[in-house]
Amino acid sequence: RRSGGDGGPASVLVIGGGISAAQAALTASRAGHRVVLRSRRPLQSRPFDIAVGWLDVRHADRLRFEYLCLPPTRRLQAIRDATAGGSVPAPYLEELQRLAASPGSSLRIEVDEAVDRSVCTSTADSVQVNGEDFDLVVLCTGVAPEPLTSSALFRSVEELLGAPTVGGLPRVDSSLRWSRGEDVFVLGANAGLELGPGGGNLVGGMRGARVVSNELHVLMREGVCAPPRSGWPDRTAFANKYAALLDGREPEVADDKYSFVLGRRLRLLARSD
């Protein structure tokens, strides 16, 4: 940012093609500043951060089946194709286009395929981008996460368990275990080779959580988990996972009666509240 200024309209460069870039450009333009919104490709509008078919129950299962039929190396490209960079909600895009097309507009929308290779210099009096002066440069280019290989924890687990990777992502199995025979699970975008392009959003998070919770429930039933802490039920395995909510004071009952006991307790708790 330029340190000087006469209090008049500033010259602002916003770099990016997503919702943050759109909001920054609109805010600066409405405040009366001269704004250039520059992105690597033409702005696009999508309702979600991944192809809508992945969120549509009519198509999601088919897409996931086709995705899992691909070899792991091709799944990486499928993730990139489905996400396809940032997008701008339709109302924002329409407002940007309207302002840019207005006579005497202070908003300019530009496409520069080499924007990530822009030459920037900064002094006490100016910020220059490709030779053009700006008072303020706003980078809305998203976050490039560090590869997992840069994490000491990742490297130690990979070395200790011989955990496989593909293109820097853990090669998890259908249970989201990273290494065969080991109860080490991976969730989120890092489990994208199994969860698909939406592994890092809410839908993928819920799918992954269901998978891992079911696996943990199986481990509880098999008695793999450590004995419960004091004050918890003295039973380490439950036929009904909701029976874990019981506090241990109830007499041992048949599996088909757990729901009755649990329901009675919940009603009593609700009444006491």
Question: What's the quick description here?
Answer:
The chain has helices spanning 19-30, 60-68, 72-83, 90-101, 152-161, 192-195, 202-221, 258-272, and strands spanning 11-15, 34-39, 107-111, 120-122, 127-129, 132-134, 136-139, 165-166, 169-170. With 273 residues, it is an alpha/beta fold. The strands form 3 sheets. Strands 3-2-1-7 form a 4-stranded parallel sheet, with helices on one face.
Commentary on this structure:
With 273 residues, this protein is an alpha/beta fold. Helices cover 34% and strands 12% of the residues. It contains eight helices and nine strands. The chain has helices spanning 19-30, 60-68, 72-83, 90-101, 152-161, 192-195, 202-221, 258-272; strands at 11-15, 34-39, 107-111, 120-122, 127-129, 132-134, 136-139, 165-166, 169-170. It has a four-stranded parallel beta sheet with strand order 3-2-1-7, with helices on one face. Strands 4-5-6 form a three-stranded antiparallel beta sheet, with no helix packed on it. The chain has a two-stranded antiparallel sheet with strand order 8-9. α1 (19-30) crosses α4 (90-101). It starts with 10 loop residues before the first strand and ends with a helix. Mean pLDDT is 79; it is low at 229-242, 250-262 and 265-273.
